[in-house]
Design brief:
The protein has two domains: 9-35 and 244-274; 56-234, Up-down Bundle (f41 fragment of flagellin, N-terminal domain), CATH 1.20.1330. It is 68% helix and 3% strand. The chain is built from five helices and two strands, in the order αααββαα. A two-stranded antiparallel sheet has the order 1-2. α1 runs antiparallel to α5 and α2 (45-99) runs antiparallel to α4 (182-235). The two termini are 18 Å apart.
């Protein structure tokens, strides 16, 4: 056995092992505190890079869901308004058909005309109120829905604007139309029938668009959940395993301190040679 007071190889080895254990303990404590086994690029550069890309995709899908939610709300309001306008047109047709009866007296026709005009004016009110977040799909403007469906914003679902104002194209009934005479009532019956056909087509378009938006919204939720689970599988720490590892490393650290203490006492045995 060689004795030296300049170099204590045993102590150096014990110190190296103790430092190694301390670093492992610090890493385990960080994993437990953050809940992550890969929290920085230093932990695992490749996994961290993949996780960051997935996090970016997840944020992108959050924006997709917001876009879809706005579009669904706007479309739902337009769909409800178009349905109400269709109901009003049906009521107006009833009044117009009754007023087109040549045997109807003037008093009855006047009453029917007043009801007709009240219903007609409700169409304008409904159109004006069919707005969400500044967008109105059925007024005289040109608003349309364009909802993004992927994180790169390169794919969209579009729903075109449909003019349901009085005299605006789909609704042939004008803002001044009346059924005050038998002839005017007969004309109104034809106009209302054509309007009902056009509004039904609009309802079909809005209904199909709303269904597509809702289906895409459900899909976006599923994709987001899958990405989030994938990120967790890559970087989340196994807390049960980390807890067991923590206890083992704490014991190992205590033993390492004792081993270092014993190793540091070894040079003192040289004194016995000179005793």
């Amino acid at each position: 056995m060689a004795f030296s007071v300049n170099t204590n190889a045993t102590a150096l080895s014990a110190l190296f092992n103790l430092n190694d254990t301390t670093r492992a303990l610090e890493k385990t404590q960080t994993n437990i505190n953050t809940g992550l086994k890969v929290s920085t690029a230093k932990d695992n550069a490749a996994i961290f890079s993949i996780a960051q890309k997935l996090r970016a995709d997840l944020r992108g899908y959050n924006a997709v869901k917001q876009s879809l939610d706005r579009s669904i709300s706007t479309t739902d309001i337009a769909l409800a308004a178009a349905g109400s306008i269709s109901d009003l047109l049906i009521e107006m047709k009833e009044k117009a058909v009754a007023a087109a009866d040549s045997g109807l007296d003037d008093t009855s026709r006047t009453a029917l005309n007043e009801d007709f005009q009240a219903l007609r004016d409700q169409v304008t009110t409904i159109v004006a109120n069919a707005e969400f977040n500044g967008a109105n799909l059925i007024d005289g403007g040109a608003d349309s829905i364009v909802a993004i469906t992927n994180p790169g914003a390169s794919q969209t679902i579009s729903i075109a604007h449909q003019n349901l104002t009085l005299g605006g194209g789909n609704v042939i009934v004008t803002a001044t139309q009346t059924i005050s005479t038998q002839a005017l009532a007969a004309t109104a019956v034809g106009n209302i029938s054509d309007s009902l056909t056009a509004v039904s087509a609009v309802l079909t378009k809005f209904g199909a668009g709303a269904k597509s938006l809702e289906a895409q919204r459900i899909f976006a939720d599923k994709i987001s959940d899958t990405i989030e689970i994938g990120i967790g599988n890559l970087v989340d720490a196994n807390m049960a395993k980390e807890s067991a590892n923590l206890q083992a490393l704490q014991v190992k650290q205590q033993l390492g301190v004792q081993a270092l203490s014993i190793a540091n006492q070894a040079p003192q045995s040289i004194l016995s040679i000179f005793g």
